[in-house]
What does this fold into?
Amino acid sequence: MKKSRRRDLLLFGAIALFVLLLGCPLRFFTGVCCPGCGMTRAVCALLRLDLPLALHYHPLVVLLPAAALAYLLRGRIPAKIMRGLVILALLALTAVYVIRMTGGSDVVYARPEKGAILRLVRWIVPAK
Ligand SMILES: [Zn+2]
It folds into this structure.
């Protein structure tokens, strides 16, 4: 196995372990949900064939099969089309994130006081 491939697998494993144990890294450290927050719960709901709940957790869960297919066929899809698909996916993710963070969802939130960084700072420098 190539050294870079082994490093990538180690990094992926570390991130996967972190997510499994502590949840979203961004939410854990900052208390602010990321654009992907809710996707794991959405996939679990989808696996239970509960589409309304899956859409509640993350509306873009319906795009995951298409994204997986595009990833599997990445060598066969022309680079220009692939780039366009990635840009569309990022735009959709950004739009959904903004809608969800501005009150369109009870799944995502921004509560810095719940983040590890602010809690650590408050532990080091207690409020008077
Ligand atoms: Zn997240």
The CA atoms of residues 35 and 98 lie 9 Å apart. The chain has one domain: 3-124. The chain has a mean pLDDT of 90.
